[in-house]
Amino acid sequence: MMKDKHVSRWTELYTEQMDVRLDKRNKLEESGSNPYKNGLKPNTSFEYLIKQYGEKAKEEIGETPHFKIAGRVMMVRDFGKAAFLQVDDGTARFQLYVNKQITSEKGFAEYKFLDFGDIIYAEGDVFKTMKGELALNAREFTIVTKSLRPLPEKFHGLTDTELRYRMRYVDMIMNPETREKLRKRSEIVRYIREAFYRNDFLEVETPMLHSVAGGAAAKPFNTHHNALDMELFMRIAPELHLKRLIVGGYHKVFEMNRCFRNEGLSLKHNPEFTTIEFYWAYATYHDLMDFTEELLTGLATHVIRSEVIKFGEHEINLKGPYARLTMREAVAKYTNSSLDQVNDRNHLLSLLKDVKQDPKKVQALSWGKLLVLAFEELVESKLIQPTFITEYPTEVSPLSRRNDDNPEFVDRFEFFMNGWEVANAFSELNNPTDQLDRFADQAVAKEAGDDEASDVDYDFVRALEYGMPPTAGQGIGIDRLVMILTNSPTIRDVLLFPLLKKEHFFSEAEKEEEL
């Protein structure tokens, strides 16, 4: 009875249009045709047919092979005894011609149960219509999957853009450009992976459940393992596990990974996101800058097919070499200051007098944190062209190696493009004593209320005590990179299924009644 209740509650929400479609499905079954068929395989794609015959004149096509196609019906122009259907097979849209005199009797009878949005299968030959349009002349026709829900007439034009992300499957059906953008993401990821393979990196997989949340300054998601009665954290970064592998003897490793941070949503942030992190023994952060330039230039050439891309009103040139500035140089350049002024704490305070932050908290910051704040508030958004920013203060870089000449700074860079941070890299800290001391600082900050600070990872300190070779490591934000390369203003556009608020299908009264 409970099962029937759940089913009936859902079907009670069906619209009149859905009831009509459901009736057609039932009549299909009564006629002996399964509305959810299996085993019907196309032998070509619409993309191939267009390439093969699209430029040919009607007389040049002549007799063609017997093609088998399948796809979703996106438009129907019915003339009674004949019809033209626009069908989408995922590679392109193509016309299908159904005619009572040409299509088999069974096939034409089944066509009469067709609705916009159904998935169909047909066999026939290619021809051009009197208007010179390419089409497939259907000799056989059948409905493969009956669609019970009508597709929207103009899905792309909906004012509720959240609906496009919530029902991504409908967005992809109605908008080929959405499918193409997400396909481009896959091509970008594939090229990046292959670039690492070409450079002899080993792809690895590290845990997503951590007993200590570390590797980045971020608030983690908490979870609980019942069998072990143990609190765990969803991975905020794979860094500390990847560096353990460097200790263990792998000298080049990378992981294309999903990370989870319990933070807010924005145009550039989703709580789960994709990065690639890699670690390279005996390399320095200078080597990683060269590698990053080569990687992005290759992406532009081989995937985007253009060294100059457009994002909003900006044109971004991905052809190297890219600008390289220390953080102090960048603040000096973009605030019309001298380096000596940037080294002065009072000058930084004067630059920050108008920022929207608590003045007392700003006044209490050390010089290094003021420098970073001045960079973030006054410089970062202006870095439109690809730019490496180096020499970060040690106090904001708990996992980076101190610079040999000036220990107040670390051997680190962040890479910016379109005013966004896209990558973070540094020569790794491999002194276990220094690492333990910085972990301790993080733990104190956490005890003082900083929910982005980390605990001490004693096992990682122990790993360093066995000895890690000099190493450089980097993380690249895949989602942001794809956003820039595909001219996408929000991260939701480049995620198949971005996180959204829970959808409620039933009214509050219905939910209370069920309880």
Mean pLDDT: 92
Oligomer: single chain
User: What is the number of helices?
Assistant: 19
* End-to-end CA span: 15 Å
Q: How many domains comprise the coordinates? A: 2
Let me know the largest β-sheet: 8 strands, mixed
Rg calculated over all Cα atoms: 29 Å
What is the helix fraction of residues, given as a range?
25-40%
Query: Can you name the CATH architecture of the largest domain?
Result: 2-Layer Sandwich
Within the largest sheet, what's the order of strands?
6-10-11-18-17-16-15-14
Given the C-alpha coordinates, what overall shape results? elongated
Number of strands: 18
What top-tier CATH class of the largest domain fits best? Answer: Alpha Beta
CATH fold naming of the largest domain: BirA Bifunctional Protein, domain 2
Taking pLDDT < 50 over at least 5 consecutive residues as the criterion, the unreliable ranges are 155-159
Structural class: alpha+beta
